[in-house]
């Protein structure tokens, strides 16, 4: 997935893990993806349920593909054949139609190898062929060799789905992503639109997914408006609470104001941060103006070694700016990571609420933890979070004004413990509306030669 940007991640991560030294693991099985396909009539389970944690063989993968494309009835009713000598009777109709439609091939001219495990590369190749992609100059010498890279490009797979063994759950997630991908010929906006046109899925059944795609498209437009914002002012807060027995407690609070504006050497920054936790109250301030960086008790010339250590502040005067601090393109979460999307109105703002699936929640939590450099990552890599909810507030002009993240229930030492992390980021101003006000005590900072960090 494309990551949420570093400030959001670091704030929430620090809040979550500040007093959670051991967190237990939980397997991802993409239950929401399987249920979504099942509700569309495009996926079946087994006698023991969806069986998402088993590794599919090639015959099972082709069967899944044929059902995903709504071709199962035609596979049995049509006059399709294949040249393979090793395909079991139950799989023959599925392999036949997939073979004649050009979605699959054998390992030789006469062998299909149905019991061999299906890799991500194989299944993504099946999907791309079904979408109408074939071997051509745009893809490479062969589709199979380029399947993973090209699959990432068109949006049917991501790195998270490629990690570890490729299971039935991974296969359902790839299938869900494929539903939202346009066909190669451009005739249909998504594969799901084609399935509706073909009569494989009813319009009524597909309506909720079409609504989801539309809302995510609106979010895309809102986020895109900030892609090249250079001057901005933000305010964000983080509150963390938990409960021990019947007693609730707040163990972390942070409030930060950040503003940046100007060009090149004249670019200015004001950063104020206040934290409260087990160690008491901490206030940090950093300012850049008039060729100096003010930090701690000292002021450093911007050409000093200390100021250069924080050169990322100044590097924001080229390329993208605002997105270094926050990413409102929440549609960048893969579809299998999104459980629900809803839209409402509050105080004149459109409010988009995204609930992440278990996979999406754990992906985000893992990203958060990896960004906390002073935490023992080995003990936290398998952190699990029950849910993440994200709210984006958009004004009448289609621009985002506020972002909220909320999570609770993290597994700690084998037990679930209610931990509420409430993060709110407010966009105070962008562009020419940004006005940076510096404190009147900058002249009290001690002059430094820039070589000694206090």
Cα(first) to Cα(last) distance is: 39 Å
What's the CATH architecture of the largest domain? Clam
Query: What portion of the residues fall into strands of 2 or more residues?
Result: 15-25%
Radius of gyration, in Å, reads: 26 Å
Low-confidence regions: 1-27, 314-331, 371-382
- Profile the largest sheet: 13 strands, mixed
**What's the total count of β strands?**
13
Which structural category fits the helices and strands? alpha+beta
The CATH topology of the largest domain comes to: outer membrane lipoprotein receptor (LolB), chain A
What is the CATH level 1 assignment of the largest domain? Answer: Mainly Beta
On the 0 to 100 scale, the average pLDDT is: 79
Order of helices and strands: HHHHHHHHHHHEEEEEEHHEEHEEEEE
Helix fraction by DSSP (H/I, runs of at least 4):
25-40%
- Compute the number of structural domains: 2
Structure description:
With 454 residues, the chain is an alpha+beta fold. The chain has two domains: 6-25 and 222-447, outer membrane lipoprotein receptor (LolB), chain A; 42-200, no CATH class. The chain is built from 14 helices and 13 strands. Strands 1, 2, 3, 4, 5, 6, 7, 8, 9, 10, 11, 12 and 13 form a 13-stranded mixed sheet that branches. Helix 1 packs across helix 14 (358-370), helix 6 packs across helix 7 and helix 6 (120-130) runs parallel beside helix 9 (168-179). The longest helix has 22 residues, at 203-224.
């Amino acid at each position: 997935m494309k990551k949420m940007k570093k400030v959001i991640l670091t704030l929430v991560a620090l809040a979550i893990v500040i007093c959670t030294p051991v967190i237990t693991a939980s397997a991802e099985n993409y239950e929401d993806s399987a249920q979504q396909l099942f509700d569309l009539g495009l996926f079946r389970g087994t006698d023991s349920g969806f069986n998402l944690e088993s590794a599919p063989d090639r015959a099972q993968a082709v069967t899944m593909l044929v059902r995903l494309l709504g071709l199962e009835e035609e596979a049995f009713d049509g006059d399709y054949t294949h040249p393979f000598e090793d395909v079991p009777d139950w799989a023959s109709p599925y392999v036949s139609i997939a073979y004649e439609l050009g979605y699959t091939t054998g390992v030789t001219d006469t062998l299909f190898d149905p019991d061999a495990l299906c890799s991500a590369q194989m299944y993504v190749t099946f999907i791309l062929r079904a979408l109408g992609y074939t071997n051509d100059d745009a893809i490479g010498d062969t589709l199979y060799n380029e399947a993973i890279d090209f699959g990432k490009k068109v949006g049917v797979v991501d790195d998270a789905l490629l990690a570890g063994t490729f299971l039935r759950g991974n296969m359902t997630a790839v299938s869900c992503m494929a539903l939202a991908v346009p066909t190669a010929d451009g005739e249909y906006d998504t594969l799901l639109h084609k399935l509706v046109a073909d009569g494989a899925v009813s319009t009524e059944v597909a309506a909720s997914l079409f609504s989801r795609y539309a809302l995510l498209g609106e979010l895309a437009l809102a986020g895109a408006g900030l892609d090249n914002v250079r001057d901005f002012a933000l305010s964000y807060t983080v509150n963390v609470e938990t409960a021990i027995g019947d007693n609730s407690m707040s163990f972390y609070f942070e409030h930060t104001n950040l503003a940046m504006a100007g060009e090149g050497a004249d670019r200015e920054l004001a950063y104020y941060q206040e934290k409260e936790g087990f160690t008491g109250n901490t206030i940090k301030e950093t300012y850049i103006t008039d060729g100096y960086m003010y930090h701690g008790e000292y002021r450093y010339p911007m050409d000093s070694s200390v100021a250069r250590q924080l050169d990322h502040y100044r590097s924001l005067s080229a390329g993208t700016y605002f997105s270094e601090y926050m990413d409102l393109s929440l549609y960048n979460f893969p579809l299998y990571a999104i459980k629900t999307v809803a839209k409402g109105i509050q105080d004149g703002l459109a409010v988009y609420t995204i609930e992440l699936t278990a996979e999406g929640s754990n992906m985000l939590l893992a990203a958060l933890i990896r960004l906390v450099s002073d935490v023992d990552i080995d003990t936290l890599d398998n952190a699990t979070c029950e849910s993440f909810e994200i709210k984006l507030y958009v004004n009448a002009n289609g621009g985002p004004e506020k972002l909220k993240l909320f999570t609770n229930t993290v597994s700690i030492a084998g037990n679930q413990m209610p931990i509420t992390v409430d993060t709110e980021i407010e966009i105070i101003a962008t562009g020419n509306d940004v006005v940076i006000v510096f404190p009147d005590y900058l002249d009290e900072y001690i002059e430094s030669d820039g070589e000694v960090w206090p």
